[in-house]
Amino acid sequence: MSGIWGYTLRRLLFMIPTLIGIVTIAFVIIQFVPGGPIDQIAARMSGEGTSATANFDGSNPSGPTDGSGATTSGLPPEVAKQLEKLYGFDRPVHERYFKMLKDFATFDLGTSYYKDEKVIDLIKSKMPVSISLGFWTILLTYLISIPLGIRKAVRVGTAFDNWTSFLIIVGYAIPAFLFAILLVVFFAGGNYWNIFPARGLTSDNWDDLSMMGKIGDYFWHITLPILAISIGSFANLTMLCKNSVLDEINKQYVTTARAKGLGETQVLYGHVFRNAMMIVVAGFPHAFITVLFASSLLIEVIFSLDGIGLLSFEAAMNRDYPVMLGSLFVFSLLGLVANLIGDICYVLVDPRIDFERRDV
Questions:
Q1: Do 63 and 181 fall within a single domain?
Q2: Average model confidence (pLDDT) for the chain?
Q3: Residues 89 and 138 in one domain
Q4: 129 and 77, same structural domain?
Q5: Based on the domain organization, do 179 and 216 belong to the same domain?
Q6: What pLDDT is recorded for position 358?
Q7: Is there a domain that residue 24 lies in?
Q8: What is the pLDDT of residue 75?
Q9: Prediction pTM value
Q10: For every residue of the chain, which 3-state class applies, written as one string?
């Protein structure tokens, strides 16, 4: 186990330049994106509203810029200067960049331009919704995909294997947002049945419900979003599990176990299962992070769930740079940590792995 500590330390140190590189690229890109926060304010004051593609036609209206590549035409010069000072755009780019790195090192992610709240507090407040979606999606996916993958491996080439492969590939091909819309139409008050709620994570009378009532209400609301996100998650894990089991079944130790007179169930679950599940278990942290931050944006919008995905989308639309950069920093950090945890899971499942011989 001593090797894993050295490997973990090297990976943790390697995260520092990786995070710096990610936020640096994002910071540089932001400097060239038209329609900065001050431009958004000018549009609102003129009654034009906000747009994610403001000034994206290549034009360059006359007027000062807000320090991020956006013009501030439409605002009185003194107001524009006050806003630039408020948002820190009166400083040179390199000063803002190094200040950002210094603040991020202490997890000071700044304050949202539009919500006037600390970015870290915003992320914390939205996290429970996204964690709920991610946790239950992964749990449902693993509970179905692992037994299904093992069954497909045992009955490879049969009608069961062929039909289930067809069904999971079809599910994988259906976009999650389209399946979510179909679920709303059929089961949430659309043209057919009104069985499940179409909005929110809890009912309006949540505070008046008993403990069991709250639990039931929570699962009642989260059923459709979880199904919508999960539909495309079964294919990869099921086929990974199937191929992993097939690979182990063809190894010599399985032949030896059968020759000793062990039954197929003992061979499968006593020998094959542990080795075959190594890659599946190790992929759990990464799969959870992927579902948590990459798969729930449109689902949160469709079902009016106030989570991380919706927060990031609104920040991009409003050019709320602290939220955009802060969210990216947190997501990247969690992703790197998840990959490290995945590697550590390999050791927990198979202690024979030697990290001393493994590069970062």
A1: no
A2: 76
A3: no
A4: no
A5: yes
A6: 52
A7: no
A8: 61
A9: 0.70
A10: CHHHHHHHHHHHHHHHHHHHHHHHHHHHHHHCCCCCHHHHHHHHHCCCCCCCCCCCCCCCCCCCECCCCCECCCCCHHHHHHHHHHHCCCCCHHHHHHHHHHHHHCCCCCECCCCCCEHHHHHHHHHHHHHHHHHHHHHHHHHHHHHHHHHHHHCCCCHHHHHHHHHHHHHHHCCHHHHHHHHHHHHECCCCCECCCCCCCCCCCHHHCCHHHHHHHHHHHHHHHHHHHHCCCHHHHHHHHHHHHHHHHCCHHHHHHHHCCCCHHHHHHHHHHHHHCHHHHHCHHHHHHHHHHHCCHHHHHHCCCCCHHHHHHHHHHHCCHHHHHHHHHHHHHHHHHHHHHHHHHHHHHCCCCCHHHCCC
